[in-house]
């Protein structure tokens, strides 16, 4: 998988994750790089959002392929090479959605807007280097929960300590 | 929703969402960015919580499409935070905002490394994830060993190890050298025994990448993959949580089958049998079910199984099962399956002989060409293109033409290109081909590239029978009311050349032809006018007896354009006017175009070029490429891509002016020797070489190909025999521009590479060309490493391989530009067809200020195709005796040998993989050696060598070489002689004579640039 993209029906980006540096030349200026990424997103939203409901889930784009699937108002897109197995990726998308669903409890677009950071780290538990690392929902859920609890405990601890520090330095 | 837990962040997101328009949103975001900037500036007051919040906000703003570059540093610095919550944010945001090319990332390497080697498991995970997602070359070099350690460590938990596996995969992609094949192949095999399916899934991905590059080293993994697949497919001992809609991890199944596709064959019959049982089960046991996800998952597995079956080139029976399945798929309603059915049928065409079965589905495929879904239409087009042959071209091409008028714009160019290629490749008769192309131009002129009409003109020019027909057709199209400009071009060109063949037909008198063409002139652009002017000149010439009225009309036009602002038009007008006033002189110059030299169709080349490659190509594609592609093999006299070197341009492009003014051509010749660089008068046009041919209607100098060649032949004569010691010297034409001095001695580097398989082939202040080779029997895989040593890019990089006739060499595409300080790798596949000592040449050029061109011998020399074999006395003597004398056994007394002891000589022989068999010859002054030579024609062939030295005079010896093939014996004998007489310097006195055994090779060599150059390099 070269990149993952979540876009809303209105073309708003909800998540982007690039596994290959998606810029033409190496070490171009950062500004140019961002512009190129924006271009990629624009092109793809144009392509995908325009597609009707009963078409296949694959779009050929440049020399790559985008596998996408629509869930309510959100399009989940993953870009792969031409030779990759399209259906496999289609089900990676669904697997991700199921995990999000289980985590948020019937996930909706708003969840992903306000908790975009969680969408990111859940994705990180699924994919590294654009490859699937874990195919057990249970394991992923466990690992995410462990991370959350780490953050919680840290917050409780630091809450008291940092308050004290802030108080002391005032 | 309350999960967010960061109020500031939620408020900001709500604010942005409540903005009524983009302008408001920008204001809100700018305000926030300002706020974040100031907060970061006086960092003191920031609590870790606040820092975290701001960095998240930045990621959100970045997603909205704004630049947050100022904050990269802050995100990166959070990575070194001591506590998990901040660290996590640092890692996640960094890996989302940055990519491997950001300089900031380097600052983090140390912290990341500490986290990886540290004891904290959660930190390890974060760090591995970051490196796995955005790690670049530098990470690869500094972290790979640590990551490997984690992956194989028994004390690490699965959650760390699976991340380490994918992290290593990433690093390997960035730099394959970080995984040491010898040490790693066993470990990789062990990893496949892993019980934890998460770790196994990740490891399988790693294996896919490894075998894609080097399957040989990972043979031991093959049976394990089959075992794993069996276990999954039979659902044996798979934990419930790893089944997905009842299917045992479909992803792992797919990956496993992917890995298996990189092994060329499966030799072990048992393994093969059990694999086929599993595949059969998948192929036959997959049903269509209601649940979409289950259906997708099971078909993902099914399609991968199909691919594997195709790869294994299974028996006909299972193959036809596959085709039957695909035939079913392309007719189903489910669009995904239909799409994949078409796609896989196309793939199947590439590897097996199933064309006839697929043809049965032609009607169904044509229906898909009209599918509402463009993805499916594209696949159908590809498939039709692939399955087309002589028997069905007419149907298919006509179908494509028909579809062309309704096709969407996105597809028209591809459609017309494909129709044009098919028409050319499989035309049942040439007039049909002309029809098709003219229809194409008529229906979709905007999408017909120049190449297409150039090609039809070439065909017509080269086939006399076709000329009257083409002229009639062109004339007919001109009657249409509004025709595309390309049609004007092609019909004007054809009528200019051949309208005189129609003169007796109604409406085809010169005058009528002229006026109907001239009617179009006001509608065309400046690029077409020159063609029309040439046509007029030609019509004028063909009008015999001359028609004063027509002449006056045409002269008036020439005079009108004499002051045209466009130089090309002006020049033609002036020239044609002057020429046509001379009367008879016009006859010669305006004669018909001579035939074009045969060359690879530019169209087909274009189609090949557009097929792109990715880092890990599927095995299928690799194989298909080996069969069909000849991307950079020189079949033509000219460089396959880009503009030809200056000298060639000089001669080829001269015509458009030199014919007019003969003194200017003379002028060109009288210039300093060899520098035939007449400045080209026309502005550079898009596809220079084709246009040069076609738009130069004056045909005195004959086809360009011969001009180039005659000049090539000239080179050695005018420049004298190049200095054999220096490979550079044979580039006489490039010399004048080559101000760059190579570092080190090119000849010595070449000699060294003849003995070892990796090293530097060439180096100068700007570039270093390294080489790494891997030889297996008669095949070799070289990788050229082109390293740019500068801080600015090297441009116009071109590498051409000039192979000798006995080697098949294929260089993958070389990028035009090498970025600063970057290294690109270009694999070069070599196949040895028959024994020969000739060497291939790499013609390499680039631009860095000046144009630099070097021609380098490639170390694909005879001894690389030798494999050591040691032979016992019992084996040696019967063989030796069975070969009685010439031409299989040749003996020669060699003089002028570099003095060396027998032991030294034995070492020398061993270094060339001629293995000395001690003790076989009782005389201590003699040496007996054996080796196996591999080539496509000889296959593996045993070679035996005996050397008798004279202890009294070490400068002479007697050598006897025997093998089962005369050429091989001769070539090997000469090869050994060369090594004995002159090592390590290359100056070997008189060049060895051409092999007597191949008297035909001498003339052939002349037309083979590779052989010519290689000959010069000796």
Automatic annotation (TrEMBL), chain A:
Entry's localization field: Cytoplasmic vesicle, Clathrin-coated vesicle membrane; Golgi apparatus
Domain of life: Eukaryota
Molecular function terms, GO-annotated: clathrin adaptor activity
Main location: membrane
Keyword annotations: Cytoplasmic vesicle, Golgi apparatus, Membrane, Protein transport, Transport
Membrane disposition: Peripheral membrane protein
Matching CDD domains: AP1_sigma (cd14831)
InterPro entries noted in UniProt: AP1_sigma (IPR044733), AP_complex_ssu (IPR016635), AP_mu_sigma_su (IPR022775), Clathrin_sm-chain_CS (IPR000804), Longin-like_dom_sf (IPR011012)
Residues covered by the AP complex mu/sigma subunit domain: 1-148
GO cellular component, one term: AP-1 adaptor complex
Oligomeric and partner information: Adaptor protein complex 1 (AP-1) is a heterotetramer composed of two large adaptins (gamma-type subunit and beta-type subunit), a medium adaptin (mu-type subunit) and a small adaptin (sigma-type subunit).
Matching PANTHER family: ADAPTOR COMPLEXES SMALL SUBUNIT FAMILY (PTHR11753)
Annotated function: Subunit of clathrin-associated adaptor protein complex 1 that plays a role in protein sorting at the trans-Golgi network and early endosomes (TGN/EE). The AP complexes mediate the recruitment of clathrin to membranes and the recognition of sorting signals within the cytosolic tails of transmembrane cargo molecules.
Family under the similarity heading: Belongs to the adaptor complexes small subunit family.
Name of the protein this chain belongs to: AP complex subunit sigma
Lineage: Eukaryota, Viridiplantae, Streptophyta, Embryophyta, Tracheophyta
TrEMBL record, chain B:
Record's subunit section: Adaptor protein complex 2 (AP-2) is a heterotetramer composed of two large adaptins (alpha-type and beta-type subunits), a medium adaptin (mu-type subunit) and a small adaptin (sigma-type subunit).
Summary of the function given for this chain in its UniProt record: Subunit of the adaptor protein complex 2 (AP-2). Adaptor protein complexes function in protein transport via transport vesicles in different membrane traffic pathways. Adaptor protein complexes are vesicle coat components and appear to be involved in cargo selection and vesicle formation. AP-2 is involved in clathrin-dependent endocytosis in which cargo proteins are incorporated into vesicles surrounded by clathrin (clathrin-coated vesicles, CCVs) which are destined for fusion with the early endosome. The complex binds polyphosphoinositides.
Annotated protein name in UniProt: AP-2 complex subunit alpha
UniProt-listed GO biological process terms: clathrin-dependent endocytosis; intracellular protein transport
Presence of keyword Transmembrane helix: no
Keywords: Coated pit, Endocytosis, Membrane, Protein transport, Transport
Clathrin adaptor alpha/beta/gamma-adaptin appendage Ig-like subdomain domain sequence ranges: 751-859
Lineage summary: Eukaryota, Viridiplantae, Streptophyta, Embryophyta, Tracheophyta
Bilayer topology: Peripheral membrane protein
Pfam families in UniProt: Adaptin_N (PF01602), Alpha_adaptin_C (PF02296), Alpha_adaptinC2 (PF02883)
Statement: the UniProt record of this protein carries the keyword Membrane: yes
GO cellular component, one term: AP-2 adaptor complex
GO molecular-function terms, A-Z: clathrin adaptor activity
Spans annotated as Disordered: 986-1008
Subcellular location: Membrane, Coated pit
Binding site for a 1,2-diacyl-sn-glycero-3-phospho-(1D-myo-inositol-3,4,5-trisphosphate): 7-8, 49, 53-57
Matching InterPro entries: Adaptor_Complx_Large_Subunit, AP2_complex_asu, ARM-like, ARM-type_fold, Clathrin/coatomer_adapt-like_N, Clathrin_a-adaptin_app_sub_C, Clathrin_a/b/g-adaptin_app_Ig, Clathrin_app_Ig-like_sf
Similarity comment text for this entry: Belongs to the adaptor complexes large subunit family.
């Amino acid at each position: 998988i070269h990149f993952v993209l979540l876009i809303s029906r209105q073309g708003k980006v909800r998540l982007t994750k690039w596994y290959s540096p998606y810029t033409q030349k190496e070490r171009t200026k950062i500004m140019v790089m961002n512009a190129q990424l924006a271009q990629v997103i624009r092109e793809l939203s144009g392509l995908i959002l325009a597609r009707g409901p009963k078409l296949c889930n694959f779009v050929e784009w440049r020399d790559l392929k985008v596998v996408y699937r629509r869930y309510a108002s959100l399009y989940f897109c993953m870009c792969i090479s031409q030779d990759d197995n399209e259906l496999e990726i289609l089900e990676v998308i669904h697997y991700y959605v199921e995990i999000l669903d289980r985590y948020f409890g019937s996930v909706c677009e708003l969840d992903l807007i306000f908790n975009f950071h969680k969408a990111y780290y859940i994705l990180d538990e699924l994919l590294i280097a654009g490859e699937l690392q874990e195919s057990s929902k249970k394991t992923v859920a466990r690992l995410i929960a462990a991370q959350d609890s780490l953050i919680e405990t840290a917050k409780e601890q630091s809450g008291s300590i940092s308050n004290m520090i802030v108080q002391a330095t005032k | 929703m309350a999960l967010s837990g960061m109020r500031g962040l939620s408020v900001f997101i709500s604010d942005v969402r409540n903005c009524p328009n983009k302008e408001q949103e920008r204001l809100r975001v700018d305000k926030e960015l300002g706020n974040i900037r100031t907060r970061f500036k006086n960092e003191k007051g920031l609590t870790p919580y606040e820092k975290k919040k701001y960095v998240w906000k930045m990621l959100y703003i970045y997603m909205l499409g704004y630049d947050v570059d100022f904050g990269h540093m802050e995100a990166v610095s959070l990575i070194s935070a001591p506590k998990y919550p901040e660290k996590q944010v640092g890692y996640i945001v960094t890996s989302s905002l940055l990519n491997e090319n950001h300089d900031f990332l380097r600052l983090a390497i140390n912290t990341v490394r500490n986290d990886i080697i540290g004891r904290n498991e959660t930190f390890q995970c974060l760090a591995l994830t970051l490196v796995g997602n955005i790690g670049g070359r530098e990470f690869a070099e500094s972290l790979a060993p640590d990551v490997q350690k984690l992956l194989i460590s028994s004390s690490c938990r699965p959650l760390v190890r699976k991340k380490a596996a994918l992290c290593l995969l990433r690093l390997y992609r960035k730099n394959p050298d970080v995984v040491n094949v010898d040490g790693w192949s066993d470990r990789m095999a062990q990893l496949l025994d892993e019980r934890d399916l998460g770790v196994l899934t990740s490891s399988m991905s790693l294996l896919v990448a490894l075998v894609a590059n080097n399957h040989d080293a990972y043979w031991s993994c093959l049976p394990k993959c089959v075992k794993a697949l069996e276990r999954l497919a039979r659902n044996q001992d798979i934990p419930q949580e790893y089944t997905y809609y009842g299917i045992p991890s479909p992803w792992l199944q797919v990956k496993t089958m992917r890995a298996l596709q990189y092994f060329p064959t499966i030799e072990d019959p048992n393994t093969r049998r059990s694999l086929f049982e599993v595949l059969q089960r998948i192929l036959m046991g997959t049903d269509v079910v209601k649940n979409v996800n289950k259906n997708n998952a099971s078909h993902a597995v099914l399609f991968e199984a199909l691919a594997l079956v195709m790869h294994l080139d299974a028996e006909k029976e299972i193959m036809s099962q596959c085709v039957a399945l695909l035939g079913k798929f392309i007719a189903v309603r489910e669009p995904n399956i239909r799409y994949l059915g078409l796609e896989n049928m196309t793939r199947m065409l590439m590897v097996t002989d199933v064309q006839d079965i697929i043809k049965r589905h032609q009607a169904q495929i044509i229906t898909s060409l009209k599918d509402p879904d463009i993805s499916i239409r594209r696949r159908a087009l590809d498939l039709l293109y692939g399955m087309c042959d002589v028997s069905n071209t007419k149907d298919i091409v006509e179908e494509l033409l028909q579809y062309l008028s309704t096709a969407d714009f996105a597809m028209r160019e591809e459609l017309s290109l494909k129709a044009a290629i098919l028409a050319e490749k499989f035309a049942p008769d040439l007039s049909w081909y002309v029809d098709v192309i003219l229809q194409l131009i008529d229906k979709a002129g905007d999408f017909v590239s120049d190449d297409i009409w150039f090609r039809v003109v070439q065909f017509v020019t080269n086939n006399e029978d076709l000329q009257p027909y083409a002229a009639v057709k062109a004339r007919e199209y001109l009657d249409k009311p509004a025709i595309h400009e390309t049609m004007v071009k092609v019909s004007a060109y054809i009528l200019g050349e051949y309208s005189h063949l129609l003169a007796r037909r109604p409406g085809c008198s010169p005058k009528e032809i002229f006026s109907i063409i001239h009617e179009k002139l006001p509608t065309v652009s400046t690029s077409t006018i020159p063609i029309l002017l040439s046509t007029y000149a030609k019509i004028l010439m063909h009008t015999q007896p001359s028609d004063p009225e027509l002449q006056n009309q045409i002269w008036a036009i020439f005079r009108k354009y004499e002051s045209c602002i466009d130089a090309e038009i002006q020049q033609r007008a002036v020239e044609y006017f002057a020429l046509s006033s001379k009367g008879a002189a016009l006859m010669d110059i305006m004669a018909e175009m001579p035939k074009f030299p045969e060359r690879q169709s530019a169209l087909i080349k274009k189609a090949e070029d557009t097929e792109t490659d990715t880092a890990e190509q599927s095995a299928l594609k690799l194989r298909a490429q080996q069969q069909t592609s000849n991307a950079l093999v020189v079949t033509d006299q000219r460089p396959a891509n880009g503009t030809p070197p200056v000298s060639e341009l000089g001669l080829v492009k001269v015509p458009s002016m030199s014919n007019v003014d003969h003194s200017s051509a003379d002028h060109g010749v009288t210039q300093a020797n060899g520098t035939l660089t007449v400045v080209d008068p026309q502005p550079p046009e898009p596809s220079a070489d084709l246009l040069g041919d076609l738009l130069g209607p004056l045909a005195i100098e004959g086809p360009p190909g011969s001009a180039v060649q005659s000049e090539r032949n000239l080179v050695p004569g005018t420049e004298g025999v190049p200095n054999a010691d220096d490979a550079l010297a044979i580039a006489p034409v490039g010399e004048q521009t080559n101000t760059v001095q190579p570092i080190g001695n090119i000849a010595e580097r070449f000699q060294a590479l003849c003995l070892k398989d990796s090293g530097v082939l060439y180096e100068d202040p700007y570039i270093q060309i390294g080489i790494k080779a891997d030889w297996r029997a008669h095949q070799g895989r070289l990788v050229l490493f082109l390293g740019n040593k500068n801080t600015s890019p090297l441009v116009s990089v071109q590498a051409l391989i000039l192979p000798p006739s006995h080697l098949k060499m294929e260089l993958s595409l070389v990028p035009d530009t090498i970025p600063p300080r970057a290294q690109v790798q270009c694999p070069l596949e070599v196949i040895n067809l028959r024994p020969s000592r000739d060497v291939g040449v790499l013609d390499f050029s680039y631009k860095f200020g000046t144009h630099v061109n070097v021609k380098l011998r490639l170390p694909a020399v005879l001894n690389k195709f030798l494999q050591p074999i040691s032979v016992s006395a019992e084996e040696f003597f019967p063989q030796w005796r069975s070969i009685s004398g010439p031409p299989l056994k040749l003996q020669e007394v060699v003089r002028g040998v570099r003095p060396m002891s027998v032991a030294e000589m034995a070492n020398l022989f061993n270094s060339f993989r001629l293995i000395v068999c001690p003790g076989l010859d009782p005389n201590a002054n003699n040496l007996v050696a054996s080796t196996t030579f591999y080539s496509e024609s000889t296959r593996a062939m045993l070679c035996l060598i005996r050397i008798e030295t004279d202890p009294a005079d070490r400068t002479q010896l007697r050598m006897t070489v025997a093998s089962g093939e005369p050429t091989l014996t001769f070539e090997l004998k000469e090869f050994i002689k060369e090594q004995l007489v002159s090592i390590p310097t290359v100056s070997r006195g008189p060049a060895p004579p051409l092999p007597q055994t191949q008297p035909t090779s001498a003339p052939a060599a002349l037309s083979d640039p590779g052989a010519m150059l290689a000959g010069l390099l000796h």
